[in-house]
Design brief:
By secondary structure, the chain is an alpha+beta fold. The protein contains two helices and 37 strands. Helix 1 packs antiparallel against helix 2.
């Protein structure tokens, strides 16, 4: 309308101006005629006095001028009216009539609700009315007016479970007409230490106290949980209106940490992120906030640190301490065959029962065998294999009844070591306790533990073609520090990664070398065909 009136005013002015100019011209013409007639009348008066023709002509001309002015004015007004009529017609076109057009839905119900779910495939919204806890399933379409809390239009897929919205719907058609995130809600983000008084329906956060009703929604993502599932260490977001909380969203939950093969650490200390947590007990399980932790276990001289242990929400993480268990010293089962029967055996000065194999850690031991009426035997054995046999035969004393202690022992040891290293298998075996350098001097106590063949070495485990027997179903597993080179009888077997190295299970006795930088550690290992993995642990630190 403003545009049309702006265009009409210039046209009206043009008409008026045009009419005014025309009238002025007519009046000027009439005035000129009057002057002209007056001059003629004056001249005639000089010739003939009392003539009245000029006055009559003037009167006629003036009447004609007045008629012309009125006609022109009427014409201008008529033209203006026709222009106004044309403008009115242009500004009021007839309204088109569309037959069968659908009437858009109109909202007849308004309420505040909690979004429970939005299905973008079926175009439905599941909403919970906070006033009466009634759950409604409403259809929506592209015509539904959906807005965020700032009033900007969004699509239904941008609504999340737990949003509090104002809803206008067509109750009869069960259609959502308008949905907007409520501008009345408050939101507390990142809250911990939440307190719940279920008997009074109160949730506390710091100095704030809120009530809740049956409409309360407690969500872990899109999953519904209970208030009691939230610990004080968990992190949540609270949403509500006024003094009532309607939504509790779990944003950082908790998981559980348990331990496997922890026996060597029982009674020790458990540290999480360098802070003491508790003593280590049987079947211990810790509840921890989800995240990554540095875990340290300690007991006496045994200690292990795992730099990254990840605890996931609502899951149990099991920490296997097998690679960090105490490494037992290798032991050998030594069978003693002693003659005469009933003789006494002393190992490192301790009277030892030898009716069954004696378990001895790898290393050297001083042994003494004595019996009344027989020459005592003193010697040294080297335990360096899983099983070995030592035979001692004591000679009778001479008939003069001299003290056996004053005579060098003439006992004979027939070693029957099933697996051993020749470099460590010689046994000192003379009565004076001196090292026997002559393996053929049986009068001074022959001590060949490698068997009757003095060349019995680890190579005797080889088959006729020089290869080692292999248990293809099991492995040799070496636990050590990272990046330790592993050699077996001088052959390079690989390097430890993540604290371990795995190789084929060769059967026999081997020299194992672990090399880390300039430091080398050597061990004699006996790998038996026992149907199990062979596990060996040695650490440099």
């Amino acid at each position: 309308m403003a545009g049309r009136s702006f265009q009409t005013r210039p046209r009206f002015l043009v008409y008026g101006l045009r009419h005014l100019i025309f009238c002025i011209c007519v009046m000027a013409f009439a005035e000129g005629q009057v002057i002209f007639l007056d001059k003629q009348a004056g001249g005639n008066q000089r010739h003939k006095k009392g003539t009245g023709a000029s006055k009559g002509a003037v009167i006629i001309l003036m009447l004609l001028s007045a008629v012309m002015i009125i006609a022109v004015a009427a014409f201008g007004i008529a033209g203006k009216n026709r222009e106004n009529d044309r403008q009115v017609v242009a500004a009021s076109p007839p309204s088109p009539t569309v037959s069968g057009a659908a009437t858009p839905p109109q909202a007849d119900q308004y309420f505040t609700a909690i979004v429970e779910a939005v299905n973008t495939e079926s175009y439905t919204m599941q909403l919970c009315n906070v006033e009466n806890s009634e759950v409604l399933l409403l259809d929506y379409s592209s015509a539904t007016d959906i807005r965020d809390k700032y009033g900007r239009q969004i699509v239904a897929g941008q609504l999340d479970a737990g949003d509090i919205v104002k809803v206008g719907c067509d109750g009869q058609a069960r259609k959502a007409v308008a949905v907007s995130i409520s501008d009345e809600i408050w939101e507390f983000v990142g809250q911990t230490g939440i307190g719940v008084a279920e008997n009074r329906n109160i949730i506390s956060s710091g100095d704030y106290r809120f009530t809740y009703s049956e409409s309360l929604h407690v969500l872990d993502g899109t999953e519904y949980i209970k208030l009691k599932d939230i610990l004080r260490s968990d992190t949540v977001t609270l949403r509500g209106i006024g003094t009532e909380v309607y939504v509790v969203l779990l944003t950082r939950g908790h998981g559980y940490l348990s331990f496997l093969e922890y026996e060597d650490y029982l009674g020790g200390s458990l540290l999480i992120n360098r802070q003491f947590v508790s003593q280590i007990t049987e079947d211990m399980s810790l509840t921890l906030t989800e995240g990554s932790y540095r875990v340290t276990v300690e007991k006496d001289d045994l200690s292990a640190t795992i730099e990254k242990v990840v605890v996931k929400r609502n899951e149990t993480t099991t920490l296997d301490l097998t690679p960090y268990a105490r490494v037992p010293e290798p032991t050998g089962q030594v069978t003693f065959q002693i003659s005469p029967a009933g003789a006494l055996l002393f190992v490192d000065g301790e009277n030892t029962y030898y009716g069954e194999p004696v378990s001895l850690d790898y290393g050297a031991y001083e042994i003494r065998v004595e019996s009344g009426g027989y020459v005592a035997y003193n010697g040294t054995i080297h335990v360096n294999s899983a099983t070995m046999t030592v035979s001692v035969s004591l000679p009778e004393t001479q008939g003069d009844g001299s003290d056996s202690e004053s005579t060098e022992g003439e006992g004979e040891i027939i070693g029957s070591e099933e697996a051993g290293d020749p470099s460590n298998s010689n046994t000192d075996s003379n009565g004076s306790g001196q090292e026997d350098t002559d393996s053929d001097n049986t009068n001074q106590g022959d001590a060949n533990q490698g068997g009757s063949d003095s060349d019995n070495t680890s190579e005797n485990n080889n088959s006729s073609d020089g290869s080692y027997p292999v248990d293809k179903d099991h492995f040799i597993i070496i636990y050590s520090d990272d990046e330790v080179e592993v050699y077996l009888d001088g052959d390079y077997m690989g390097v430890t990664e993540d604290g371990q190295a795995m190789m084929e299970k060769f059967i026999g006795s081997f020299t194992l070398e672990l090399i880390k930088g300039d430091e080398t550690k050597s061990y004699i290992i006996q790998v038996d065909d026992d149907g199990e993995d062979f596990i060996f642990r040695r650490y440099f630190e």
